[in-house]
Amino acid sequence: MQQTDLIFNAAIIAVIFGLIFKSIVIVKEQSSAVIERLGKFNKICPSGLHFIIPFIDRKVDIVNLRVQQLDVGVETKTMDDVFVNLKVSVQFKVTREKVKDAFYSLDNARGQIASYVFDDVRAEVPKLELDDVFAKKDDIAKAVRINIAEIMEEFGYTIIKTLITDIDPDHKVKESMNRINAAKRDKEAAMEVAAARKITIIAEAEAEAESKRLSGEGIARQRLEIVRGFKESVEDFQKTLKNVSHEEVMQFVLLTQYFDTINNVGSNSKNTSILIPHSPGAMQDFQNQIIQGTFIGEKLNEFTDPDEEKDKD
């Protein structure tokens, strides 16, 4: 009898502990427990320790209240007939005050959200060309979030953020876009090179023009000094030799210049041979040419240096 009583008491204690265990519901943080009584909704238990009636009340499920993310891949076509794959990430959570609606309204909340994402993206992207899809992806994501948020709010879900994390056109389209961008960059580079070349050519032309101008001024001054020297030599000859004619003086000066020139040519030519026709007969021809050019002396007598005129003034 005593052994039977011990077994019976142990069974009773086990049943009592079982009932206590079945009556206790522990809910983790950021979660809510859905409690049904005899198959009908009874209450929502927030995080913490709760008690229910065993075998009458039942914990149906635990609803996660944390922010969740759903990634949806959508293939659609743009306005310029380019097929593109978009990856849309939807961040959502169950509204704490609407746990009952979120649990009982939708059987598959993720599938429902994905369906709305498909519908909204395929309604927004065909309004834009491919370049605008890249430029206005934030606007597309915002429009999708607004449309989904209005609908899912009725079912107890809050849409926090919608992001378009990837835009992947067809492979051939990407190659074409890369070629277009490369061509644009090459065009800009060619224009910059041409502009730099233009600046260089203009600078070189200006430098050459300035060099020629200065060289011309130097030659003009050199010739002016040569003429001045001729003039002074003629005047000195006329003052020293009273009976020498003007023509004879010019002949003497020009012959002197001729021999000096030949001497300079011979001394300056190092490895180069220069052939100059010269003979006694050539000297006579040169004399005749000098006689025919006697008018130069007359012009030299009439020559007046502009600097001397300024000094006289």
UniProtKB/TrEMBL annotation:
<dbReference type="InterPro" id="IPR001107">
    <property type="entry name" value="Band_7"/>
</dbReference>
<feature type="transmembrane region" description="Helical">
    <location>
        <begin position="6"/>
        <end position="27"/>
    </location>
</feature>
<keyword id="KW-1133">Transmembrane helix</keyword>
<keyword id="KW-0812">Transmembrane</keyword>
<dbReference type="InterPro" id="IPR050710">
    <property type="entry name" value="Band7/mec-2_domain"/>
</dbReference>
<feature type="domain" description="Band 7">
    <location>
        <begin position="22"/>
        <end position="181"/>
    </location>
</feature>
<keyword id="KW-0472">Membrane</keyword>
<dbReference type="GO" id="GO:0008233">
    <property type="term" value="F:peptidase activity"/>
</dbReference>
<keyword id="KW-0645">Protease</keyword>
<keyword id="KW-0378">Hydrolase</keyword>
<dbReference type="InterPro" id="IPR036013">
    <property type="entry name" value="Band_7/SPFH_dom_sf"/>
</dbReference>
<dbReference type="GO" id="GO:0016020">
    <property type="term" value="C:membrane"/>
</dbReference>
<protein>
    <submittedName>
        <fullName>Regulator of protease activity HflC, stomatin/prohibitin superfamily</fullName>
    </submittedName>
</protein>
<dbReference type="GO" id="GO:0006508">
    <property type="term" value="P:proteolysis"/>
</dbReference>
<dbReference type="Pfam" id="PF01145">
    <property type="entry name" value="Band_7"/>
</dbReference>
